[in-house]
Amino acid sequence: MLAPKIIAADDLRVGLTAEYEREIEESDVLGFAANSGDFNPLHVDSSFAQHTRYSQRVVHGAFQIGLASALIGMHLPGRDVLLGSVNARFLSPLYFPCRVRVRGEITAWNLASRAGSVRVTVSDLASLAPTSEITMAFTLQAGKPEQPAATKQKSTPVETAFSFDGNDRKILILTGASGGIGAALLKALAKEFSVLALVHRRPLQEKPPHAVEVQADMSAPGWEQIITQRLGSHPLYGIVHCAWAGMPKGGLLQSDPRLIEQQLAFGTSHVVRLARLLFSLVGSDGGRMVALGSVAGHYKPTLGLGAYSLAKSALEDTLRLLAPEVARKKITINAVCPTFVPAGMNVQADDLQIKREAALIPMGRICETQDIVGAVRYLLSPAASFISGQSIVLSGAQL
Predict the structure, then answer these.
(1) 42 lies in which domain range?
(2) What is the pTM of this model?
(3) Non-local CB neighbours of 260 within 8 Å, separated by 6+ positions
(4) Through-space distance between the first and last CA atoms of the chain, rounded to whole angstroms
(5) pLDDT tens across 78-115, in order?
(6) How many CB atoms lie within 10 A of CB 44?
(7) How far apart are CA 119 and CA 114, in angstroms?
(8) Which residues, other chains included, contact 306 with Cβ-Cβ below 8 Å and sequence gap of 6+?
(9) Among 237, 258, 283, which Cα is nearest to 381's?
(10) pLDDT score recorded for residue 156
(11) 103 - beta bridge partners?
(12) Are residues 42 and 110 in the same domain?
């Protein structure tokens, strides 16, 4: 029997990967059917499967979840892992016999709570097509090894970055804090608020006072628990949602359905999860939620950015629908929709492109990050307490 790897809590980090390959034979699928009791003929009866749209037998979806379980239990994080939850999507049928690659990546990790998540992808090596994507939330159960006294003083820099105790600052969550616009917002908002800065693949380049970095994958389950544990008994005042999955080019007809789903998630389901979190943690004085939209949404959709425009438009509709629901706890929820900004996803824009964009703006200049910062700060302020469900377009008078 193979021994599982042991990866210590201090060695785990977002982006850490592991993978393995294995053959899946008929005997493996029939054995799984016998052990699980799932003898659905699509998996075990060749004659039946031939007359379905699949034309041949396919591997159980739960079998693939078992492959993901083997990855986290044997490879990443290994021996000390305890599975908390599973969220699976099956992208295409997996026919057998076959050889598969099972690859996992840490998408969230909090050393203090010893909780995180792994996104596992199962791919058929013959076609290289992913057949399933499985996210597993986990905790590490083994106690931390004893460390020398000199090392202990350095072991928890994130938790000691700032403390809410005795701090009268209101608390904000900022998603996408390591992006170009997110970084500008973090620098400005940390002057007034205590900010939990959510990052995924890229860490913060600069961490201002009154800000703490939290690694979390919004596409995975469990990150809300990390936030809740970090807040303790302190109320949450607001959320500024800047995270987004890039700006893919192309029309809707040529876009991969999974890409469209990913874009839509950032404008719909992720927004709903954030609103639920704020609704459950807000104090009696109410709170604020502001999302970063785009003129490419409702205001001026762009055919060459089909999936992005669709998702940004859906973001505005999601906020409008949420506004009446969260209002009973004195929460406002709005979007800031800028025109072209030479930062974040447009950071590579050259001088010629910037001049072309500026020529379209009656005010004679392009939108800057400080324009966005100013609008967000206003919507977070008491002066905006009666504005909700709205999209504030930063157009510079452009029609």
Answers:
(1) 9-140
(2) 0.59
(3) 252, 307, 310, 311
(4) 68
(5) 999 999 899 999 989 999 999 999 999 999 999 888 99
(6) 18
(7) 17
(8) 250, 251, 252, 253, 255
(9) 237
(10) 35
(11) 19, 121
(12) yes
